[in-house]
Amino acid sequence: MDLQTLRQQINQIDQELIDLVVSRFAVAQEIAKLKTNKDHVYDEAREQELLSLWLESGSELDQNFLRALFHLILNESRNIIIRNAKGSSEK
Description:
The chain is flat. By secondary structure, the chain is mostly helical. It has a single domain (3-84), classed as Chorismate Mutase Domain, subunit A, CATH 1.20.59. The longest helix is centred in the N-terminal third of the chain and has 32 residues, at 3-34. The chain has helices at 3-34, 44-57, 63-84.
């Protein structure tokens, strides 16, 4: 394959990644609709479970990279839930 074709593949994969993140954040907004208190967003057990799944699924990737990506996505998901939780005055 030539460089241009490979770059096009990277562009397509990048768009798919963005689409998946947008979908994940849309689900976080749906979760926010079910939350009655924005102070009860953090669930340590659930986040540890998710992180373990990420690390197992991405075992061929650098674990520090996966942890950093996981925390970026989870932090934004929490922020979305806090901003959109029922009774939130920060909408």
